[in-house]
Design goal:
Layout: E1 4-11, E2 14-21, E3 24-31, E4 42-51, E5 56-60, E6 67-70, H1 71-74, E7 99-104, E8 116-117, E9 122-123, E10 127-129, E11 135-138, H2 140-144, H3 148-158, E12 164-167, H4 176-199, E13 204-207, H5 212-220, E14 225-230, H6 233-246, E15 254-256, H7 263-266, H8 269-276, E16 280-282, E17 288-293, E18 298-303, H9 312-334, E19 339-344, H10 351-365, E20 372-377, E21 383-387, H11 394-398, E22 399-401, E23 410-412, H12 414-431, E24 437-441, H13 443-451, H14 454-464, E25 468-472, E26 481-485, E27 488-492
Parallel strand pairs: 1-14, 11-12, 14-15, 18-19, 24-25
Antiparallel strand pairs: 1-2, 2-3, 4-5, 4-7, 4-13, 5-6, 7-8, 9-10, 10-12, 16-17, 17-18, 19-21, 20-21, 22-23, 24-26, 26-27
Helix pairs in contact: 3-4, 5-6, 9-10, 12-13, 12-14
Length: about 500
């Protein structure tokens, strides 16, 4: 069984949560003030505009951009097949000016607002509560392990009229008492939302999903998660308190990072983040994959690197493709790639080999907490797959178009570079606590440092015991900076 470790780094102005599996980074979440995810939040919104041409509506929710409500998501649960057949239209369900209860399915991306649905779901530790969507569904893993029948029977006895439940994989190891408590907690949350709706005026947020750290408890709290290491005593205390509500069994797995080396440096996370932002990924067996994100889709190309192998071209193609599959699955999750993903595997002639590759790919992505659908090979020999998009990809979070080449390349965004500079200031000052500090960076990075929440820079100065001088130097590359202290310099290369 794969061993997982969660690392929670609390740095000035942000928290980063890394999930490590057998020593390798598999997921990274960056949590910053003012940039919290809205996915899973429930809003009482107002229908602002109907677009009959595409059978959709825009819903104002109090966010910067209105939510997008398509016909399939506006139709009530258990109503038809969701295809829109039979002459139904969006106006059969909503009209301009209507107040409507919706849930955000993902975060706004680029110039697009969040996709929303009227089919509300409330995820718990063991079950997902689906009010108004009667029926009991379950994860494929429960079915495969033969645990589905007894659990379904138990939950069926607890279900009330109009209620539905999705049994998660974690339910297989839950006691009847734990399942009952989970269901009762979700019912109480739904009742609270109903009470808030009766007095709220749209637009209003009626329910916020858990923050990234607490979501980690909910999604990853099974036996595979061995340790949760935190580098901040205050956050550690908050997590211990949260454990009593979300997952009492996790309390014994919480640890305080006390080594002199910064938490992410101790586990070589920084280097793995750099690799995850690179378009090329080398494979241990030779060859590699190239990952390119575009607005419409993500393209992944597999190559052999000119490696020769006994057995001929077909055997070499199969071996290269099979070696690439674990890294493809890992990087899809690590980079948080959403939407359409197209994979160009090394060409294979035999249908049996092509099916073996598809089967291996489906197995590799089966543990992803975001639903992934592998459609198979197209007539042109490409593999199409989709992954549910819930939040911005890693590159969208950390990178920005390069100003020197008018967007042809990508560099760290000014905000990401500013946060990195603050983190390095803190780490350097821990080593030399009595020395003055200066940050030299391009104007856009300096501006980002100044525009961060005032308490963030003040927090760094309080921790270090020194004022931090900011010096603009536009001779440096767009995302490069230098931290000077005690006559020594720590540089960040773009």
């Amino acid at each position: 069984m794969t061993s997982r470790t969660a690392l929670i780094e609390v740095a000035p102005g942000q928290r980063r949560i890394a999930l490590v599996e057998d020593g390798r980074l598999s997921e990274l979440v960056v949590d910053r003030p003012g940039r919290q995810s809205v996915a899973g939040n429930i809003y009482l919104g107002r229908v602002e505009r109907i677009l009959p041409s595409i059978q959709a509506a825009f819903v104002g929710m109090g966010l910067e951009r209105s939510g997008f409500l398509g016909l399939a998501e506006a139709r009530p649960a258990n109503h038809g097949d969701g295809s829109g057949a039979g002459g139904e239209g969006i106006t059969d369900y909503v009209s301009e000016g209507d107040a409507v209860l919706v849930q955000a399915l993902n975060d706004p991306v680029s110039d697009k607002g969040a996709k929303v649905t009227t089919r509300i779901t409330l995820p718990g530790r063991f079950v997902v509560y689906t009010p108004g969507q009667a029926g009991i569904r379950m994860s494929r893993r429960l079915v495969a392990e033969g645990k589905a029948g007894p659990i379904e029977a138990m939950v069926s006895k607890l279900a009330r009229d109009g209620e539905g439940f999705i049994l998660r994989s974690a339910a297989g190891d839950a006691t009847d008492e734990s399942l009952t408590d989970d269901i009762d907690s979700l019912r109480a949350a739904w009742e609270t939302i109903g009470e808030a709706r009766r007095t709220a005026r749209p637009p209003a947020c009626l329910h916020r999903d858990l923050d990234p750290v607490q979501r980690l408890f909910r999604e990853e709290a099974g036996p595979r998660l061995g340790r949760i290491v935190v580098d901040d005593a205050g956050v550690l205390a908050e997590l211990r308190a949260a454990c009593t509500r979300l997952s009492p069994g996790l309390a014994d797995r919480l640890e305080m990072h006390s080594a002199g080396t910064a938490l992410f440096d101790a586990y070589d996370i920084e280097g793995q983040i750099e690799e995850a932002l690179s378009p090329t990924v080398a494979l241990p067996s030779g060859g590699g994959i190239v990952i390119e994100e575009t607005t419409a889709l993500t393209a992944i190309d597999v190559n052999t690197g000119g490696r020769t192998i006994s057995g001929g071209p077909e055997r070499a193609a199969v071996d290269a493709n099979m070696a690439a599959i674990p890294e493809i699955a890992r990087h899809i999750r690590l980079r948080n790639l959403g939407g359409l993903v197209v994979v160009d595997f090394v060409s294979m002639r035999r249908q049996g080999n092509r099916q073996a590759v598809i089967d291996a790919l489906r197995q590799a992505v089966s543990s992803d907490h975001c639903p992934v659908h592998v459609a198979g090979f197209t007539r042109f020999g490409l593999v199409e797959m989709t992954r549910e998009r819930r939040r911005a990809s890693l590159s969208e979070t950390l990178l920005a178009p390069c100003p020197a080449c008018t967007g042809a390349g990508r560099v760290y965004s000014p905000e990401a570079a500013a946060y990195d500079a603050l983190r390095r200031i803190r780490n350097q000052q821990n080593a030399r606590p009595a020395q003055p500090l200066t940050v030299r960076a391009p104007g856009r990075v300096i501006e980002a440092l100044k525009n961060l929440a005032p308490e963030t820079l003040a927090q760094v100065e309080e921790q270090t015991g020194r004022a931090v001088d900011l010096i603009c130097d536009d001779s440096l590359a767009a995302d490069r900076f230098e931290v000077h202290g005690s006559g020594e310099t720590e540089e960040k290369d773009g």
